[in-house]
Amino acid sequence: MIKLTEKIGYGFGDMASSMFWKLFGAYLMIFYTDVFGLPAAMVGTMFLVTRIWDSVFDPIVGIVADRTNSRWGKFRPYLLYLAVPFGLIGVLTFYTPPFGTTGKLVYAFITYSLMMMVYSGINVPYASLLGVMSPDPKERNVLSTFRMMFAYIGSFIALLLFMPMVNKFSEGLSEQMAWTAAVVVIAALCIILFLGCFSWTKERVKPLNDNKTSLKQDIKDLIHNHPWWILFGAGVATLVFNSIRDGAAVYYFKYFIIEDQHAEISLFGISFVLSGLFLAVGQMANILGVILAAPVSNLFGKRKTFAGAMVIAVVLSVIFYFFDKDDLVLIFVFQCLISICAGSIFPLLWSMYADCADYSELSTGNRATGLIFSASSMSQKFGWAIGTAVTGWLLSFFGFQPNAVQSPETIQGLKMFLSFLPAAAAFISIIFILFYPLSEKRCKEIMEKLNLKREAKNE
After folding, report:
1. How many CB atoms lie within 10 A of CB 445?
2. What is the pTM assigned to this prediction?
3. What is the pLDDT of residues 355-401, one digit of tens each?
4. Where do the domains of the chain lie, and which CATH numbers do they carry?
5. CA-to-CA distance for 54 and 370, rounded, in angstroms?
6. How many whole angstroms separate alpha carbon 447 and alpha carbon 334?
């Protein structure tokens, strides 16, 4: 039985990852266009190129991690050694150098690519850790729930406080340096959280086969893991759903709602902007979705829970398009409802990926946990790559001009970013998940057979 302290420690890891992940998703695009000074289409292309490379890099990290042996295990050492580089490169990503457009583009390519690589280097082993902390699918559901709950808490903190910190630092610094200073605060907290995750977690599940398998065999096993391919497709579509909504939200409030015309909301001396509150409210609703995921999926099954949540998200997203700029109450209410649906998805996905690792081990005798989780992380990167690239390209297509009054066509495009476009992605995820074959009954049978093999091996 895993103690509460270890569950919290495991949650710390995704709390750290999600702080930067949400900064990338919600603010990096507008940072590059409105602060850094790059054209939107150019940024979209950069995101696509860097994230495709990063997606390919994920399985490399997983393969290396699977072959790592240390006194701390296979996956925990990466949390220890990459925590500080993660924070430092994150700060450099949000720094504006005194270069021309070409120099800035090169700098952005280099720093963002390095950031995504170090993100993979620490996050892939962290995700893989779930598969070796416990062999019990229900306990993994709980761990995955803690992971996602802390992830959304971290996202909530980052999204709620980031722009107020930028505004506060702007009182004594330039706009560009104010953004960098705010990221320094987030980076320092992330380093502490990663080190806490390393200290409070433990690896327990040992592979049935201690012999080193070839990379060719590992890849062959993954290719024949049919449940994993289905989750891969569902994961890509779900991340497109999230990345489009997150990436366009700040534009939506800045240029459609025109949040500068609304009174600032102050609490404890901190002034909050509407876009930050919108994103933060979404994270709090995500947490509720995470909390509901385990009991609802234990009652109805993971596949039905996933599909049902996405069906509701499709319907709500379509309705969202018809809200006017003055319908703030409805906009925030629907943000909560859609985010509850989205929040319930990710603990289910990661728990199902762990089930895929068990399925592969029973079928092949080889447990390549790192490769399976890294390839699963790759689906996230593909989803974000597609979503952010589409956002940049469509902003340009709709005629977006930074820091200017937008045309009616651009405004209609911004409304679609939070409605029809994510709805289409959610619909695609539903189609994939309906074909997922590992029911709760099947997962229980797999666990029992693996336990019998482990007991026979230890006799």
Report:
1. 12
2. 0.72
3. 888 888 888 877 666 777 776 667 777 787 788 788 888 888 999 88
4. 4-458 (1.20.1250.20)
5. 16
6. 40
